[in-house]
Design goal:
The chain contains nine helices and seven strands; from the N terminus they run ααααββαααββββαβα. It is 36% helix and 18% strand. By secondary structure, it is α+β, with helices and mostly antiparallel strands. It has two domains: 97 residues, Arc Repressor Mutant, subunit A (Orthogonal Bundle); 104 residues, 2-Layer Sandwich (Nonspecific Lipid-transfer Protein, Chain A), CATH 3.30.1050. The strands form two sheets. It has a five-stranded mixed beta sheet, with helices on one face. The chain has a two-stranded antiparallel ribbon with strand order 1-2.
Length: 229
């Protein structure tokens, strides 16, 4: 297979051109997107990035690790599974992902009806996240999202904390204390967070605990008209 020549090899010293040499190949930023919230195994990435073949995924991960955007490491304990995770430099691509999303959403051919992976949807929430100055804090929400694109998958868990200073959301493996718990499919949660449908009109979304705290998470992370995305 003939490798693509870099822009630098054509005497192009533009930093943006070099960035495209690093992450401009098809599927590369999608793989990066699925690593922004934490490490994943090769099988996890194959599951979450629909349409990518194992050969292409192997090449993209090799390119990302070669360029220092990601690393491969072995988890301790039984099984000793290998995972891929972004480096500190690689995690800075979250702002690139958010900026690309804000630009692309203005496209007339944007597939607004298409589903999103759990991590992609939470990344959108992080992009829109804002503090809640008029409410006492901190308030915490446990969020469990099931991927609507595939059947029989376990939910992915996230923990959100809202304060007067910021709203932060992380993917977690162990559930912490929360004032409210939300369980939803990604399709219905997208309808709420991005589509603006109120929680009360989405009966498939389960809310337990303090409902006002669940509503507060929606207020703090949903798309608004002045967000531009």
């Amino acid at each position: 297979m003939v490798s693509r020549r870099s822009y630098g090899s054509y005497n192009d010293g533009c930093a943006a051109a070099h960035a495209l040499d690093l992450i401009g190949e098809r599927w590369t930023m999608i793989v990066v997107r699925e690593l922004l919230l934490g490490p994943k195994r090769f099988a996890d990435l194959q599951r979450d990035v629909l349409g990518i073949g194992p050969g292409i995924l192997t090449r993209r991960l090799h390119e990302l690790t070669t360029h220092g955007v990601a690393v491969r490491r072995r988890l301790p304990g039984p099984g000793r599974a290998d995972v891929y995770e972004l480096t500190t430099w690689g995690r800075q691509l979250e702002v690139v992902n958010s900026t690309l999303s804000a630009w692309a959403v203005q496209s007339p051919s944007m597939p607004f009806d298409a589903d999103m992976s759990p991590d992609t949807l939470v990344l959108a929430m992080r992009t829109h996240a804002r503090p809640v100055p008029n409410h006492p804090g901190p308030r915490a929400v446990s969020l469990a999202l099931t991927d609507s694109r595939q059947e029989n998958l376990s939910p992915v868990h996230y923990h959100a904390v809202m304060t007067a200073d910021a709203t932060v959301i992380h993917r977690v493996t162990e559930l912490g204390r929360a004032d409210a718990a939300i369980a939803a499919s990604t399709r219905e949660w997208k309808d709420c967070i991005i589509g603006g449908t109120p929680l009360t009109r989405l009966p498939g979304i389960s809310v337990t605990g303090d409902r006002s705290t669940a509503e507060l998470l929606v207020t703090a992370t949903s798309l608004r008209s002045d967000d531009g995305v």
